[in-house]
Design goal:
This is Phosphoribosylformylglycinamidine synthase subunit PurQ. Its EC number is 6.3.5.3, 3.5.1.2. 23% of the residues lie in helices and 21% in strands. It has 273 residues and is of the alpha/beta class. It has a single domain, classed as Rossmann fold, CATH 3.40.50. It has a nine-stranded mixed beta sheet with strand order 2-1-3-4-11-10-9-6-7, with helices on both faces. A two-stranded antiparallel ribbon has the order 5-8.
């Protein structure tokens, strides 16, 4: 696939944020991207020229924010709405290898949707969630730079070396990865064995550490995971907020650490479609 053919949808509803930054990141790298409201995929009240199909795009991004006010649970309402109108299309989309990214609230949505941890390639959306992203162990909203060690590659990190440490900022109140107590060891071991843990929180020496380096208390310092097919990826930190070097605390030139997420998925699409 040529660069100019790639089309990216950044899905939004009331309460999402950073969709504009995400769109601009993709556009800066030479691909077409637009923010698309969920209603544009199904509602006949939307003008004909604004109606969309999921298959108009090659990549779907669910951005951060507080979708629908995060009522019930973070991401629960957004995921329920997606499941009610897009489930079949989204399952086909994932099965065909098209990439899906969830950032912060988007990660919460993918978890609530049952698209992550995504152990079954033949059934990419589970009937019910198999994990959750719950209230931070600190019981506070955590907003700061975070350091992440790259553990395993996926469609969104294939240009990063294994073991490389990057800085993406976090900004969330409910980002602690938790598994059902009775299945915690089983699920964690499966993620490790499958190489589905993409990023883990580390300290400035690259060592796995507790708070504040692990800002939410996630089990095994998990910051981001992918499905077994490696084309669905969710992470709590925000790569779009450090797309440029001047957004980095050390004020670097050119692109920042977050650019590699967008560059990687573009390379994935160019090679595979």
């Amino acid at each position: 696939m040529d660069l100019e053919e790639i089309r990216v949808a950044v899905l939004r509803i009331e309460g999402t944020n950073c969709e504009d930054e995400t769109v601009k990141a993709f556009r800066n790298l030479g691909v077409y991207a637009e923010a698309v409201h969920l209603k544009q995929f199904y509602s006949d009240t939307v003008r004909e020229d604004e109606q969309r199909s999921l298959f108009d795009y090659h990549c779907l991004v669910i951005p951060g924010g507080f979708s629908a006010g995060d009522y019930v649970r973070a991401g629960a309402i957004f995921s329920a709405r997606i499941k009610s109108v897009l489930r079949r299309d989204l399952e086909v989309f994932i099965k065909e290898g098209y990439p899906v990214l969830g950032i912060c609230n988007g990660f919460q949505v993918l978890v609530e949707l049952g698209a992550l941890p995504g152990f079954d390639e033949d059934k990419p959306i589970a009937e019910k969630p198999e994990m959750t992203l719950t209230v931070n162990a600190s019981a506070r909203f955590e907003c700061r730079p975070s350091l992440l060690k790259h553990e395993n590659k996926c469609a969104f990190t294939n240009l990063l070396d294994i073991g490389e440490v990057v800085m993406f900022p976090v900004a969330h109140a409910e980002g602690r990865v938790v598994f059902p107590k009775e299945r915690e060891e089983e699920i964690l071991n499966t993620l490790i064995e499958n190489g589905q843990i993409v990023f883990r929180y580390v300290d400035e020496s690259g060592n796995y550490a507790g708070y504040p380096w692990n800002p939410n208390g996630s089990v095994y310092n998990i910051a981001g995971i992918c499905n077994v097919k490696r084309n669905v990826f969710g992470l709590m930190p925000h790569p779009e907020r450090v797309f440029w070097g001047y957004q980095h605390p050390e004020m670097r030139e050119g692109y920042g650490d977050g650019a590699v997420v967008f560059q990687s998925v573009i390379e994935y699409l160019r090679k595979n479609f």
